[in-house]
Amino acid sequence: MEYLQFLIILLFSPLIQGMIKKMKARMQGRVGSGIFQPYYDLIRLMKKEMVISHVTSWIFKATPYIVLASTIVASMITPVLTTRVPFGIMGDVIALIYILATGRFFMALAGLDAGTAFGGEGSSREMAVAILVEPMMMLSIFTAAISVGSTNIARIAEAQNMVYSPSHLLALSAFVVAIIAETGRIPVDNPDTHLELTMIHEGMLLEYSGRYLALMEWAHYMKQMLLFTLGVDIFFPVGIPSDTAFAGLGVSFALYFLKMGFMAVLMAAIESTRAKLRFFQLPSLLGGAFVLAFLSLLTYIMMGR
Amino acid sequence: MKNWIQAFSVMDFISVGILLTAVAMNAFKRLESCVKIYTLNSLLLSSLIAIVALMVGEPHLYIASAATLLGKGILIPMFLKRVVRQMKVTHDVEPYINNALSLAISGILVAVVYASLRQGIFVSGFSKNVLQISIAVILIGLFVMITRRKAITQVIGLLFMENGLFLAGFSLTYGMPIIIELGVLFDMLMGVIILGIFAVQIKRAFASSNLDNLTILKG
User: What distance in Å separates the CA atoms of residue B147 and residue B124, rounded to the nearest whole number?
Assistant: First the structure.
């Protein structure tokens, strides 16, 4: 039973994307498309014919599968409804970040593969952002990991240390910035545009079409929901049971969707109220968040809580 | 009330907030944001002292808190805002060290302070690492003073240092006698007013408030 919890991320991630889009539209005074629109998009893309440039190598064809597979493996490490996770013994937070980095690495390669200007631009930008984001994400998670004494996500979630201390609050705010940067949301990247000189994530996907594009988009939605889940597991692990009793799972499912809804509202609010930063201003934002994470660790060590 | 303050560890949050506003000072370029973040720092300081006064029940701490609120939370920021408006500059020119790097350096400063002061000394009622935080705020204020070019941001750096000193004094001894506190506060106010007038005059004489121009012998 617990082996199937990654299916929740697999199946519901387009719904979360739809919810964010819908709420964003509402906040900006538009009607917006329905919350199931990402599903229709994915189905439509699956049916479409693929156009593949003849100069591309095997990397271009393998990347969608590698990205999707790495995201699925990462979601198998993460507890969703119960802290009994399939690969719980094998993977901890550090492994998870590097599994996601594998996917990112291949995505950047695929962006370079077709040899277009936009692809290379997107890849180099993605890597520049990743250098700043990865250590920050790790530091912010380490604050929670130290307080539990384990880097295993399931152990952190099990400890249920209700986060009410300055150090955890700082770590949480750094983690929210990390989520925004990783999912390509507005102060860092604009998820809604194509063919604009500022794009990061879309730049790498520009050469993809049809089924491959669907897989890449789906992997992106999954990564987004995975990061939300990770944040929820680490910072609000309320109501996650450590067994697979049916009643506990039901409560956990309801709570999980409440938390996901909260994250979706938060993201939509940030996207609606902020303007996109110039790329060369990003180090200021991400460096600031890094200092937040660093201070949270220091404060934790000094205060002991 | 006291139980609530203890249960939600308000003291810890406010003292970390004081540190955070000082660090955040390094991230801002707009002069008005700098004044705002200083105001926030002073308000947090004032509320920290008020809460300690409530917890310990020392009446003279209430007076100190009110004086901080009035002087540093309202009067000095109002005056600084006026100076900023008079000078008609909205942005600091690029500081000697760019924002991302100065954020990182202020983080390192905090780490150095924390590493060199393992055991904090504090009187009962304050949170555990308040001495470290106050010394870190002093160092960050000094850092802001030496990296910014505009006269007004250097004044704000000085004010941050003073806030740090104030916090250190209170966390070690519950503050000096009230008459000295009031005297220091009044001095501070006068100092800021004089420095503000200087800044406006420098701007008038050199057509810029960039302090590098003062090293040139002929105006």
Answer: 36
